[in-house]
Amino acid sequence: MREPLTIPARQERVRAFLDRLGATPPQVLLLEGGHDPEREALALYWACRLNCARSLACKSDQPIQTALLAPAGQPKVEPCGACPECVQILEQVHRDLVFIDGRTESIKIDMVRELRSLMGEPPRGQGKRVIVLFEAQALQPEAANFLLKSMEEPRPGNVFVLTAPQRERLLPTLVSRSFVLTLAWPEVWEAEPVVGEGENASEWAGAMGEFWRTGRGWFERTSDKGRLDAPLAARVLVECQRALAGALSGREEFGQSLRDLGPESLRRLYAALDMAQECLEYRVNPALTLDWLAVTGFSLTRGQ
């Protein structure tokens, strides 16, 4: 069995839920939470569940409510991971798997348009055509709106899988059309290595969170010339993203002031983090980049 079908034990609840959900699959499944390798593994697991020869042989026609509430002792219907269908899915070469990876580039409208003609055809196998938009927060606005139109006109035999760190990073209308499953949130994050004389990314991220709460204490850091370089700034952004994920799961003190933000404000904050990362990639001054993020986050926490 290939590694992607080996689901971490802490995601066993979600894996078992997918097994039962496969009896009557929703048109759009959204997987949020966890780490991105876990989201990828479960997206491929879902595609296997809907196309595995063994799963299809055990296919149930029971209503979705019955399937989800099935007794724990009921025999499981799960993909084998070894049949040609499963192996091809895990290799991402299956004829009924479309995998669009938002980690490598933005998901543009042309990519989504190409799906329309494909969706007009029936699946080539006996299962479902599974269209995975991995890290769907990379959808450009035009692509997201075009995707919504495709979802409004469901084609038999086609299902979508969207993945994202948090649902708030997607358009609310996309989320409202999805069956949302939340993976176990990441465990407490490992501390960043110390940089220079006592500097580390988590301390800087904490200072960012303090500024978002109070409007104080940030610019003293960035005005100290040479204290912040691009590698440290990149790690600060990662720590900020981790802290926001923790805020959503109720663990991070950093995010105390963020829990009252509405979905649109959270989406704008995540978009600001993405923009800051792009600025660093284009070699914009790290201090100016994080100063802009600090002011943006402060404004959002004040409802501006």
Write the layout of secondary structure elements.
Layout: H1 12-21, E1 28-32, H2 36-51, H3 53-57, H4 64-68, H5 84-90, E2 97-101, H6 109-119, E3 129-134, H7 141-152, E4 158-164, H8 172-176, E5 179-182, H9 201-214, H10 219-222, H11 230-248, H12 263-281, H13 286-301
Parallel strand pairs: 1-4, 1-5, 2-3, 3-4
Helix pairs in contact: 1-2, 2-5, 6-7, 9-11, 9-13, 11-12, 12-13
Describe this structure in words.
This protein is of the alpha/beta class and 304 residues long. It has a five-stranded parallel sheet with strand order 2-3-4-1-5, with helices on one face. Helix 9 crosses helix 11, helix 9 crosses helix 13 and helix 11 packs antiparallel against helix 12.
Oligomerization category of the chains in this entry: single chain
The low-confidence runs, each spanning 5 or more residues with pLDDT under 50, are 60-74, 188-198
Largest sheet: 5 strands, parallel
Number of helices: 13
How large is the share of residues in beta strands?
A: 5-15%
Q: What string gives the helices and strands in order? A: HEHHHHEHEHEHEHHHHH
| Tally of DSSP β-strands | 5
Helix content: 40-55%
Structural class of the secondary structure composition? Answer: alpha/beta
Rg (C-alpha, Å): 21 Å
Instruction: Enumerate the strands of the largest sheet in spatial order, edge to edge or round the barrel.
Output: 2-3-4-1-5
The geometry reads as: elongated
- Give the termini separation: 51 Å
Mean pLDDT: 82
